[in-house]
Amino acid sequence: MNLENATREELQTLEQKLAANYQEYQDAGLKLDLTRGKPGAAQLDLADEMEGSLKDKMISESGTDLRNYGGLDGIPAARKLGSEMLGLRKSEVISGDHSSLTLMYLYMLHAYYHGSQGPDTAWVREGDVKFLAIVPGYDRHFTICEELGLQMVNVDMLDEGPDMDAVDDLVRNDSMIKGMWCVPKYSNPTGNVYSEEVVERIASLGKIAGSNFRVMWDNAYGVHDLFENPQQLANVMDYCRKYGTEDNLILTASTSKITYAGGGISFLGTSEKNLEHFRKRLSVMSIGPNKLNQQRQVLFLNNIEGVRAHMRKHAEILRPKFAMVQKHLESGLGGKGMGTWCNPEGGYFVSFDALPGLAQEIVRLAGEAGVKLTPAGATFPYTRDPNDRNIRLSPTFPSVEDLDLAMQIFVTCVQLASIRKRI
């Protein structure tokens, strides 16, 4: 039944049926969680072979004792792996501990307070600076900006990537815009992959931006394909070299959703000039990362081809989960005028847009029926979705069986909220 064509009596009858189903879910006392994009246990099990790999391998090929202090940039083999994942030269990459989020936050602190290339370049000296936020987007990126007091300016995500006409206009006409957040492949939560044209336009922004502009290129899902022959992401640094904007680019990635989510290694890549200044911050807070963990990750993954082979095993686990989400959305909501959603070919999320004004109500209904969802508004800066419609679904952590039930409840909640708005 399409909302637009249904009579009031038909809607009232369906609402009563849905309300009864909903009550049964409430009475069942369920506890299902679709909040965050965590790997499931079966995915984590794939890396268990890594344990024990350090036996007789705690001394590097160069003779460095990996059990000791030192090595601020990370071990050479880890930096090489990071360079292959990010499409950079090894000299442009450092490897850290498990969280790329930590490196992102540290770099933003560094640029804000200390300056990306010395004190004279510190954003804090310039006044009330701004950052572009691609929406819907990743809540933790927005939280970093909030923490630093950076004013965020929303830019819509389009099919090919950010609305680059809007980005160009904003950056060209406001020198206080100091950067933008990007998740260029399987963007969180929409699943978009930036087109080559968009990548090139982003790389060229340094030519028109104010001083000390930085693109924060979080390639968190660069190898997280669900299917063979995936859409390829253009190499943004290659285009930066073309335009002479290498200093404007900061790239990050990690193995945290490749091996162990709480025990991977992270990478930050940028120009050698930027790294020279960033090392000064790292040297104040650290004697070096966990080199033993870097060693075992490299021994297990070896190189980018080893990473891709391992990720094909992840895909086998994840494909049925993403298919389950699409099955329920299509069968329960397809053609009914109650919302739209993405069908990503990789990454960790499915983005659902309800009818305007209903996201918070759907999340509330789902929570009271035992399905915990990411809070409505989380995919926008300051948790304010101007249309109150976007909901991020995270299907990776639950079992297929739990996901089957959770999606039945979610669809019921969408139908119930949509019909009640219409009546």
Write the layout of secondary structure elements.
Blueprint: H1 8-27, E1 32-34, H2 41-45, H3 76-86, E2 93-96, H4 100-114, E3 130-135, H5 139-148, E4 151-158, E5 161-162, H6 164-173, E6 177-182, H7 196-203, E7 214-218, H8 236-243, E8 249-254, E9 266-269, H9 272-285, H10 291-301, H11 304-333, E10 339-341, E11 350-354, H12 359-368, E12 371-373, E13 390-393, H13 400-422
Parallel strand pairs: 1-12, 3-4, 3-6, 6-7, 7-8
Antiparallel strand pairs: 2-9, 4-5, 8-9, 10-11, 11-13
Structural commentary:
Helix content is 41%, strand content 14%. By secondary structure, it is an alpha/beta fold. Strands 2-9-8-7-6-3-4-5 form an eight-stranded mixed beta sheet, with helices on both faces. Strands 10-11-13 form a three-stranded antiparallel beta sheet, covered by helices on one side. A two-stranded parallel ribbon has the order 1-12. Helix 1 packs antiparallel against helix 13, helix 4 runs parallel beside helix 5 and helix 11 crosses helix 13. The protein is globular, with a radius of gyration of 23 Å. The mean pLDDT is 96.
